[in-house]
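Q: Two folds, back to back.
A: First:
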Amino acid sequence: MEVSVAATATTSASRSSENPTKVEGKYKAMVVCWILGIGCLFSWNSMLTIEDYYINLFPKYHPSRVLTLVYQPTAFITLVILTYYEAKVDTRKRNLLGYVLFFFSTLAVLVLDLATSGRGGRGPFVGVCVVSATFGLADGIAQGGMVGDLSYMLPEFIQVATIFP
Protein backbone atom coordinates (compact mmCIF):
# COMPACT_ATOMS: atom_id res chain seq x y z
CA MET A 1 0.00 0.00 0.00
CA GLU A 2 2.79 2.41 0.84
CA VAL A 3 4.59 1.69 -2.40
CA SER A 4 1.55 2.54 -4.53
CA VAL A 5 1.01 5.83 -2.66
CA ALA A 6 4.64 6.77 -3.20
CA ALA A 7 4.42 5.80 -6.86
CA THR A 8 1.26 7.85 -7.29
CA ALA A 9 2.90 10.88 -5.62
CA THR A 10 5.95 10.53 -7.85
CA THR A 11 3.93 10.33 -11.06
CA SER A 12 1.70 13.26 -10.09
CA ALA A 13 4.77 15.34 -9.23
CA SER A 14 6.38 14.53 -12.58
CA ARG A 15 3.13 15.37 -14.41
CA SER A 16 2.89 18.76 -12.72
CA SER A 17 6.43 19.62 -13.76
CA GLU A 18 5.70 18.56 -17.35
CA ASN A 19 2.49 20.60 -17.67
CA PRO A 20 3.09 24.20 -16.64
CA THR A 21 0.12 25.98 -15.16
CA LYS A 22 -1.54 28.77 -17.10
CA VAL A 23 -0.79 32.20 -15.72
CA GLU A 24 -4.01 34.13 -15.11
CA GLY A 25 -4.07 37.91 -15.59
CA LYS A 26 -0.62 38.15 -17.13
CA TYR A 27 -1.52 40.94 -19.55
CA LYS A 28 -3.40 42.92 -16.92
CA ALA A 29 -0.34 42.70 -14.69
CA MET A 30 1.87 43.82 -17.58
CA VAL A 31 -0.34 46.90 -18.06
CA VAL A 32 -0.08 47.69 -14.33
CA CYS A 33 3.72 47.31 -14.47
CA TRP A 34 3.83 49.59 -17.49
CA ILE A 35 1.76 52.25 -15.69
CA LEU A 36 4.01 52.04 -12.62
CA GLY A 37 7.09 52.35 -14.84
CA ILE A 38 5.57 55.43 -16.50
CA GLY A 39 4.89 56.81 -13.01
CA CYS A 40 8.59 56.63 -12.16
CA LEU A 41 9.60 58.13 -15.46
CA PHE A 42 7.04 60.95 -15.65
CA SER A 43 8.26 63.02 -12.71
CA TRP A 44 11.91 63.26 -13.64
CA ASN A 45 11.05 63.80 -17.30
CA SER A 46 8.88 66.72 -16.28
CA MET A 47 11.95 68.27 -14.64
CA LEU A 48 14.03 67.64 -17.76
CA THR A 49 11.33 69.11 -19.98
CA ILE A 50 11.09 72.30 -17.95
CA GLU A 51 14.88 72.68 -17.87
CA ASP A 52 14.85 75.22 -20.73
CA TYR A 53 12.61 77.39 -18.58
CA TYR A 54 15.02 77.03 -15.66
CA ILE A 55 17.96 77.98 -17.89
CA ASN A 56 16.20 81.27 -18.72
CA LEU A 57 15.07 81.75 -15.12
CA PHE A 58 18.43 80.98 -13.46
CA PRO A 59 21.15 81.87 -16.03
CA LYS A 60 23.92 82.21 -13.41
CA TYR A 61 23.43 78.81 -11.77
CA HIS A 62 23.66 76.29 -14.68
CA PRO A 63 20.50 74.33 -13.84
CA SER A 64 21.01 71.81 -16.64
CA ARG A 65 24.07 70.47 -14.82
CA VAL A 66 23.20 71.18 -11.22
CA LEU A 67 19.78 69.52 -11.19
CA THR A 68 21.20 66.28 -12.55
CA LEU A 69 24.10 66.42 -10.10
CA VAL A 70 21.65 66.86 -7.22
CA TYR A 71 19.26 64.16 -8.44
CA GLN A 72 21.64 61.33 -9.30
CA PRO A 73 23.69 61.03 -6.07
CA THR A 74 20.51 61.24 -4.01
CA ALA A 75 18.95 58.38 -5.99
CA PHE A 76 22.14 56.31 -5.79
CA ILE A 77 22.65 56.81 -2.04
CA THR A 78 19.00 55.96 -1.41
CA LEU A 79 19.35 52.75 -3.43
CA VAL A 80 22.53 51.79 -1.57
CA ILE A 81 20.97 52.36 1.85
CA LEU A 82 17.74 50.54 1.00
CA THR A 83 19.67 47.66 -0.57
CA TYR A 84 21.61 47.22 2.65
CA TYR A 85 18.45 47.27 4.79
CA GLU A 86 16.17 45.48 2.31
CA ALA A 87 15.21 42.68 4.68
CA LYS A 88 13.90 45.17 7.26
CA VAL A 89 11.87 47.32 4.85
CA ASP A 90 8.32 46.50 3.75
CA THR A 91 8.50 46.75 -0.02
CA ARG A 92 4.84 47.66 -0.52
CA LYS A 93 5.13 50.59 1.86
CA ARG A 94 8.40 51.52 0.18
CA ASN A 95 6.74 51.61 -3.25
CA LEU A 96 3.81 53.63 -1.96
CA LEU A 97 6.15 56.10 -0.25
CA GLY A 98 8.13 56.50 -3.47
CA TYR A 99 5.07 57.25 -5.57
CA VAL A 100 3.67 59.63 -2.95
CA LEU A 101 7.01 61.48 -2.97
CA PHE A 102 6.87 61.63 -6.77
CA PHE A 103 3.42 63.19 -6.58
CA PHE A 104 4.32 65.77 -3.95
CA SER A 105 7.59 66.63 -5.70
CA THR A 106 5.77 67.31 -8.94
CA LEU A 107 3.24 69.39 -7.04
CA ALA A 108 6.07 71.26 -5.29
CA VAL A 109 7.55 72.31 -8.64
CA LEU A 110 4.25 73.95 -9.57
CA VAL A 111 3.70 75.53 -6.15
CA LEU A 112 7.26 76.88 -6.05
CA ASP A 113 6.89 78.52 -9.45
CA LEU A 114 3.49 79.98 -8.57
CA ALA A 115 4.67 81.21 -5.17
CA THR A 116 7.67 83.04 -6.64
CA SER A 117 5.68 84.33 -9.64
CA GLY A 118 8.35 82.96 -11.97
CA ARG A 119 11.13 85.18 -10.59
CA GLY A 120 14.64 83.85 -10.48
CA GLY A 121 17.10 84.20 -7.66
CA ARG A 122 19.02 82.12 -5.19
CA GLY A 123 16.06 81.13 -2.99
CA PRO A 124 13.88 79.69 -5.76
CA PHE A 125 16.93 77.93 -7.25
CA VAL A 126 17.69 76.26 -3.92
CA GLY A 127 14.01 75.26 -3.76
CA VAL A 128 14.22 73.69 -7.22
CA CYS A 129 17.39 71.85 -6.14
CA VAL A 130 15.59 70.49 -3.05
CA VAL A 131 12.74 69.31 -5.27
CA SER A 132 15.26 67.67 -7.60
CA ALA A 133 16.82 65.88 -4.62
CA THR A 134 13.34 64.75 -3.58
CA PHE A 135 12.84 63.32 -7.07
CA GLY A 136 16.08 61.38 -6.60
CA LEU A 137 14.92 60.13 -3.21
CA ALA A 138 11.56 59.05 -4.64
CA ASP A 139 13.26 57.38 -7.60
CA GLY A 140 15.60 55.42 -5.36
CA ILE A 141 12.72 54.33 -3.16
CA ALA A 142 10.15 53.46 -5.84
CA GLN A 143 12.28 52.01 -8.63
CA GLY A 144 14.40 49.94 -6.30
CA GLY A 145 11.29 48.51 -4.69
CA MET A 146 9.59 47.85 -8.01
CA VAL A 147 12.59 46.11 -9.52
CA GLY A 148 12.97 44.06 -6.35
CA ASP A 149 9.32 43.00 -6.35
CA LEU A 150 9.15 42.29 -10.07
CA SER A 151 12.34 40.23 -10.05
CA TYR A 152 10.43 37.50 -8.20
CA MET A 153 7.70 37.43 -10.85
CA LEU A 154 7.66 36.75 -14.58
CA PRO A 155 10.55 38.27 -16.55
CA GLU A 156 8.06 40.04 -18.83
CA PHE A 157 6.87 42.18 -15.91
CA ILE A 158 10.27 43.67 -15.21
CA GLN A 159 10.90 44.20 -18.92
CA VAL A 160 7.64 46.11 -19.26
CA ALA A 161 8.31 48.24 -16.16
CA THR A 162 11.89 49.20 -17.04
CA ILE A 163 12.22 49.11 -20.83
CA PHE A 164 9.03 50.48 -22.32
CA PRO A 165 8.61 53.67 -20.26
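A: Second:
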Amino acid sequence: MQYPEAKLSRSSLLLSLKRYSAAVHTMEQTVLIPSLLREVPSDDVLEQETAEDAKDLYDCYLMLKAIRNTVDSGLAQPYDDTKVIVGHAGPRKGMEDLELDADPEVLLKFHLRGLFSVMVHLTKTSQSLTAKYMDIIGISN
Protein backbone atom coordinates (compact mmCIF):
# COMPACT_ATOMS: atom_id res chain seq x y z
CA MET A 1 0.00 0.00 0.00
CA GLN A 2 1.44 3.35 -1.03
CA TYR A 3 0.95 6.38 1.19
CA PRO A 4 0.93 9.86 -0.31
CA GLU A 5 3.61 12.06 1.25
CA ALA A 6 1.05 14.68 2.26
CA LYS A 7 -0.61 12.28 4.72
CA LEU A 8 2.63 11.36 6.52
CA SER A 9 3.51 13.25 9.68
CA ARG A 10 6.84 15.05 10.01
CA SER A 11 8.07 12.42 12.43
CA SER A 12 7.09 9.48 10.21
CA LEU A 13 9.85 6.93 9.75
CA LEU A 14 8.69 6.27 6.19
CA LEU A 15 8.96 9.97 5.34
CA SER A 16 12.41 10.08 6.95
CA LEU A 17 13.55 7.14 4.81
CA LYS A 18 12.16 8.82 1.69
CA ARG A 19 13.94 12.09 2.52
CA TYR A 20 17.21 10.24 3.04
CA SER A 21 16.88 8.36 -0.22
CA ALA A 22 16.06 11.61 -2.06
CA ALA A 23 19.03 13.42 -0.47
CA VAL A 24 21.42 10.64 -1.52
CA HIS A 25 19.91 10.61 -5.03
CA THR A 26 20.52 14.38 -5.27
CA MET A 27 24.05 13.83 -3.98
CA GLU A 28 24.70 11.19 -6.66
CA GLN A 29 23.32 13.46 -9.39
CA THR A 30 25.45 16.39 -8.18
CA VAL A 31 28.73 14.59 -7.46
CA LEU A 32 29.90 13.79 -10.98
CA ILE A 33 33.56 13.28 -10.02
CA PRO A 34 33.61 11.55 -6.62
CA SER A 35 37.42 11.41 -6.60
CA LEU A 36 37.43 15.18 -5.91
CA LEU A 37 36.15 14.28 -2.43
CA ARG A 38 39.33 12.36 -1.54
CA GLU A 39 41.38 13.86 1.29
CA VAL A 40 38.71 16.49 2.01
CA PRO A 41 37.94 16.18 5.74
CA SER A 42 34.35 15.53 6.70
CA ASP A 43 32.40 17.45 9.35
CA ASP A 44 32.84 14.50 11.69
CA VAL A 45 36.63 15.05 11.80
CA LEU A 46 36.30 17.08 14.99
CA GLU A 47 34.47 14.19 16.63
CA GLN A 48 37.18 11.66 15.69
CA GLU A 49 39.64 10.81 18.44
CA THR A 50 42.66 10.33 16.17
CA ALA A 51 43.58 11.42 12.68
CA GLU A 52 43.82 7.74 11.68
CA ASP A 53 40.12 7.26 12.38
CA ALA A 54 39.11 10.37 10.43
CA LYS A 55 37.18 9.77 7.23
CA ASP A 56 37.38 11.95 4.17
CA LEU A 57 34.33 12.99 2.15
CA TYR A 58 34.95 10.21 -0.37
CA ASP A 59 34.57 7.55 2.36
CA CYS A 60 31.47 9.36 3.57
CA TYR A 61 30.08 9.41 0.01
CA LEU A 62 30.56 5.65 -0.38
CA MET A 63 29.03 4.97 3.06
CA LEU A 64 25.94 7.08 2.30
CA LYS A 65 25.41 5.29 -1.02
CA ALA A 66 25.81 1.86 0.57
CA ILE A 67 23.32 2.69 3.33
CA ARG A 68 20.85 4.03 0.77
CA ASN A 69 21.13 0.80 -1.25
CA THR A 70 20.41 -1.20 1.90
CA VAL A 71 17.47 1.03 2.84
CA ASP A 72 16.00 0.87 -0.66
CA SER A 73 16.51 -2.86 -1.22
CA GLY A 74 15.70 -3.99 2.31
CA LEU A 75 18.61 -6.42 2.24
CA ALA A 76 19.79 -5.77 5.78
CA GLN A 77 21.70 -8.59 7.45
CA PRO A 78 19.87 -10.22 10.35
CA TYR A 79 21.25 -9.25 13.75
CA ASP A 80 23.77 -11.70 15.16
CA ASP A 81 24.67 -10.98 18.77
CA THR A 82 27.57 -13.44 18.64
CA LYS A 83 29.60 -11.04 16.49
CA VAL A 84 31.81 -8.56 18.25
CA ILE A 85 31.95 -5.10 16.72
CA VAL A 86 35.44 -3.59 17.00
CA GLY A 87 35.41 -0.20 18.64
CA HIS A 88 31.83 -0.58 19.86
CA ALA A 89 31.53 0.81 23.36
CA GLY A 90 28.46 -1.22 24.23
CA PRO A 91 24.85 -0.15 24.57
CA ARG A 92 24.19 3.55 24.98
CA LYS A 93 22.63 4.95 28.06
CA GLY A 94 18.91 4.36 27.94
CA MET A 95 19.18 0.78 26.73
CA GLU A 96 20.04 -0.24 30.28
CA ASP A 97 16.55 0.78 31.35
CA LEU A 98 14.92 -1.39 28.71
CA GLU A 99 14.68 -5.09 29.30
CA LEU A 100 14.08 -7.52 26.49
CA ASP A 101 10.94 -8.79 28.18
CA ALA A 102 9.64 -5.26 28.72
CA ASP A 103 6.50 -3.96 27.05
CA PRO A 104 6.95 -4.49 23.27
CA GLU A 105 5.37 -1.09 22.55
CA VAL A 106 7.98 0.67 24.70
CA LEU A 107 10.79 -1.23 22.95
CA LEU A 108 9.38 -0.40 19.52
CA LYS A 109 9.08 3.30 20.34
CA PHE A 110 12.64 3.38 21.70
CA HIS A 111 14.09 1.77 18.57
CA LEU A 112 11.97 3.83 16.17
CA ARG A 113 13.13 7.02 17.88
CA GLY A 114 16.74 5.90 17.47
CA LEU A 115 16.27 4.90 13.84
CA PHE A 116 14.51 8.17 13.06
CA SER A 117 17.36 10.18 14.60
CA VAL A 118 19.96 8.19 12.62
CA MET A 119 18.08 8.76 9.36
CA VAL A 120 17.80 12.50 10.01
CA HIS A 121 21.55 12.66 10.75
CA LEU A 122 22.40 10.71 7.57
CA THR A 123 20.13 12.96 5.50
CA LYS A 124 21.87 16.08 6.83
CA THR A 125 25.27 14.46 6.18
CA SER A 126 24.29 13.75 2.58
CA GLN A 127 23.07 17.31 2.07
CA SER A 128 26.25 18.70 3.64
CA LEU A 129 28.45 16.55 1.40
CA THR A 130 26.54 17.75 -1.67
CA ALA A 131 27.01 21.39 -0.63
CA LYS A 132 30.75 20.87 0.01
CA TYR A 133 31.17 19.23 -3.39
CA MET A 134 29.49 22.21 -5.02
CA ASP A 135 31.90 24.50 -3.17
CA ILE A 136 34.86 22.41 -4.34
CA ILE A 137 33.86 22.68 -8.00
CA GLY A 138 33.01 26.37 -7.61
CA ILE A 139 29.25 26.34 -7.93
CA SER A 140 27.38 28.41 -5.35
CA ASN A 141 23.95 27.37 -4.09
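Q: And?
A: The chain is about 50% helix and 0% strand.
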